[in-house]
Write a structure and sequence with these properties.
Blueprint lengths: L2 H4 L3 E10 L4 E8 L12 E6 L3 E6 L10 E6 L3 H8 L5 E8 L5 H4 L3 E7 L3 H13 L7 E7 L8 H9 L4 E6 L11 E2 L16 E6 L2 H13 L7 E4 L15 E2 L2 E2 H4 L2 E3 H4 L7
Parallel strand pairs: 7-8, 7-11, 8-9, 9-10, 11-12
Antiparallel strand pairs: 1-2, 1-6, 2-5, 3-4, 3-6, 12-15, 13-14
The protein binds flavin-adenine dinucleotide and FE2/S2 (inorganic) cluster.
Flavin-adenine dinucleotide binds next to strand 4, strand 5 and helix 2.
Cofactor: [2Fe-2S] cluster
GO biological process, one term: pyrimidine nucleotide biosynthetic process
GO molecular function, one term: metal ion binding
Length: 276
């Protein structure tokens, strides 16, 4: 395959656009060649908006979902604001899926503790729905989700379903709840949920996705709970260009986040100065 074709996006069509919060939208997308994306939970695509550019975006739908794949996109800059303005039927480009996602085969049979902060729920949702669709393949599963305020909660209806489900333990928290707002979850940062958790550090594996600041504090709580370093997986975000290990834009020492990650075992990166 020539280098040019590696960088050539597949044409794709926006099938639907749904508002999740003031700054986040969920897009259903289909490749125009009719093929499935065949992603693994935790992988990302390079989204190309014609005339604007590319950005890496996690695939938020599970591979167990039939039909179009989904991207949850927060409008923060050029590409993400541009796609927020697009509508059903508009054309975009997709490269990927890329990167090392969550090691599903390894996680099978284990107890899973999922910790998602803010937009970190987007990649986690793919794994959560995979686990729910193959429930008997996994042990006890707990979701801890936190964001700043109730109006920033992503996938509200799904979180309600997970909370009510007997198959999974789902707990939610917000940093702040303004007066007069109806909120049934905890109030406090996400780490305040961890001391109440009763998990076995021998059998439990944590999967953590969130803003960089969250990792430091979650790691401290997991240290207190006695969870070994190699029982923790996390997804890193770096500015990317090629997405395929060619440009070095996302490099941390000898690691390329786009190719060796974005999901890493904490034991492998905890001593890399720039990683966390
Ligand atoms: C593996 C991976 C998965 C991701 N998944 C998602 C996802 O599921 N959903 C999602 O919404 N986002 C996701 N992101 C984040 C997304 O790729 C970035 O927010 C991306 O920058 C958006 O592109 P943009 O063109 O819209 O923004 P840009 O125009 O690139 O701007 C983004 C922000 O960065 C600032 N900025 C611009 N240039 C620079 C610079 N040179 N140095 C420092 N700051 C700069 C801007 O001011 C702005 O605040 C993911 C990122 C990675 C690496
Ligand atoms: S983005 Fe180019 S090497 Fe990772």
């Amino acid at each position: 395959m020539s280098k040019d074709s590696l960088f050539k996006p597949e044409k794709a069509t926006i099938l639907s656009k749904r508002t999740l919060t003031e700054s986040d939208k969920l897009f259903e997308i289909e490749l125009d060649n009719g093929e499935k994306l065949n992603q693994e939970p935790g992988q990302f695509v390079q989204l190309f908006v014609p005339g604007v550019g590319e950005a890496p975006i996690s695939i938020t739908s599970s591979p167990t979902k039939e039909g179009p794949f989904e991207l949850c996109i927060r409008a923060v800059g050029n590409v993400t604001n541009a796609i927020h303005q697009m509508k059903k039927g508009d054309k975009i480009g997709i490269r990927g899926p890329y990167g090392e996602g969550f090691d599903i085969e390894f996680l099978e049979g284990k107890d899973i503790l999922l910790v998602g902060g803010g937009l970190g729920l987007a990649p986690l949702r793919s794994l959560i729905n995979y686990i729910l669709d193959k429930r008997e393949d996994f042990g006890e599963t707990t979701i801890l989700y936190g964001c700043r305020r109730p109006c920033e909660v992503l996938f509200e209806e799904e979180i309600e379903r997970w909370t009510e489900s007997c198959d999974i333990d789902c707990r939610k928290t917000v940093d702040i709840c303004p007066g007069g707002v109806c909120w049934t979850g905890n109030v406090g940062v996400i780490t305040t949920l961890i001391p109440d958790m009763d998990f076995d550090p021998e059998t439990t594996y944590a999967v953590i996705c969130g803003p960089p600041i969250m990792y430091k504090f979650v790691m401290e709580e997991l240290d207190k709970a006695g969870l070994p370093d190699d029982h923790r997986f996390l997804s890193l975000e770096r500015r990317m260009r090629c997405g395929i290990g060619e440009c070095g834009h996302c490099q941390i020492n000898n690691l390329y986040v786009c190719q060796d990650g974005p999901v890493f075992n904490y034991a492998d990166i905890k001593d890399l100065e720039e990683a966390l």
